[in-house]
């Protein structure tokens, strides 16, 4: 009986499906809600689990450079992806833009809601009041903050605001300051404003004032699941994934297309 039992157990084990590979995706904090939905869709379609790690692109890039176990990196700007590519930390031929975005001025007070364009005549410093701060991601390190700084400089507003900032580690933290009323205004991505009901858009930031906001994705060079990772990166550019990104306010990789 024992050999027969062993044969039966072995047959049952062989009949069970192999556990799918678990993919670890490091993604910019601004992609949080959208990437959760993308991961769900990927898991449903492929049966492959996805573990998501969110933070500012600078933080994630440095972690990858230090050997963090990531399979895919989705950055909020090209510079940090370039930085990793120069160090041989990503698979260059896998790199592709997955989405684009825009900047908006957000406010905690619903009365400040407006769809007007921010111009050199927009006196943000005055509406902050004597003690108010402008919430932004770190303007010298985090993509959303870098874009915000570029825009404010182009508009001639940087000099009056540089000492009035409330800098944060990532754009979602800047959004939270405004949502909680700890900062009356902030500069964040349009997708962030869409995701947070406790803020209103107080103005749109002209795209011509800052570099294009793109989200490059790539396979991490040290990934042990490079085939699965490459399939995930390729899928981000396909119609199903793009439709999910659009639901969360993201624009196509090339907004003009």
General description of the model:
The chain is of the alpha/beta class and 257 residues long. The protein has two domains: 19-100 and 214-247, D-Maltodextrin-Binding Protein, domain 2 (3-Layer(aba) Sandwich); 103-204, D-Maltodextrin-Binding Protein, domain 2. The protein has eleven helices and ten strands. The protein has helices at residues 2-15, 32-46, 57-65, 78-86, 124-127, 143-154, 158-161, 171-179, 190-195, 226-236, 239-247; strands spanning 23-28, 50-55, 72-74, 96-101, 103-107, 134-137, 165-168, 185-189, 200-204, 213-219. The strands form two sheets. Strands 2-1-3-10-4 form a five-stranded mixed beta sheet. It has a five-stranded mixed beta sheet with strand order 7-6-8-5-9, sandwiched between helices. Helix 2 (32-46) links the parallel strand 1 (23-28) and strand 2. The protein starts with a helix and ends in a 10-residue tail after the last helix. Residues 1-19 have low confidence and may be disordered.
CATH H-tier superfamily of the largest domain: Periplasmic binding protein-like II
Tell me, rounded to a whole number, the average pLDDT.
91
Widest beta sheet: strand line-up: 2-1-3-10-4
For the sheet with most strands, the description reads:
5 strands, mixed
Low-confidence blocks of residues: 1-19
What radius of gyration results from the CA coordinates?
22 Å
């Amino acid at each position: 009986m024992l050999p027969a039992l062993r044969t039966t157990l072995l047959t049952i084990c062989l009949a069970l499906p192999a556990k799918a590979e678990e993919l670890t995706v490091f993604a910019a904090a601004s992609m949080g809600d959208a990437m959760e939905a993308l991961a769900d869709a990927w898991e449903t379609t492929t049966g492959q689990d996805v573990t998501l790690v969110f933070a500012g692109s600078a933080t994630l890039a440095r972690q990858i450079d230090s050997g963090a176990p990531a399979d895919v990196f989705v950055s909020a700007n090209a510079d940090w992806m370039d930085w990793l590519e120069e160090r041989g930390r990503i698979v260059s031929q896998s790199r592709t833009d997955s989405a684009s975005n825009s900047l908006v001025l957000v406010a905690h007070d619903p009365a400040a809601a407006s769809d007007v364009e921010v111009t050199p005549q927009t006196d943000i410093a005055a509406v902050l009041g004597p003690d108010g701060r402008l919430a932004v991601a770190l303007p010298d390190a985090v993509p959303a903050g870098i874009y915000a700084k570029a825009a404010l400089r182009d508009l001639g507003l940087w000099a009056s605001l540089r000492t009035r900032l409330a800098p944060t580690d990532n754009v979602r933290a800047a959004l939270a300051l405004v949502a909680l009323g700890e900062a009356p205004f902030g500069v964040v991505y349009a997708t962030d404003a869409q995701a947070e009901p406790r803020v209103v858009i107080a103005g749109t930031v002209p795209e011509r004032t800052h570099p294009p906001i793109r989200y490059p994705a790539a396979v991490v060079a040290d990934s042990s699941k490079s085939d699965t990772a490459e399939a995930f990166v390729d899928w981000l550019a396909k119609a199903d994934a793009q439709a999910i990104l659009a639901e969360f306010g993201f624009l196509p990789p090339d907004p003009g297309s």
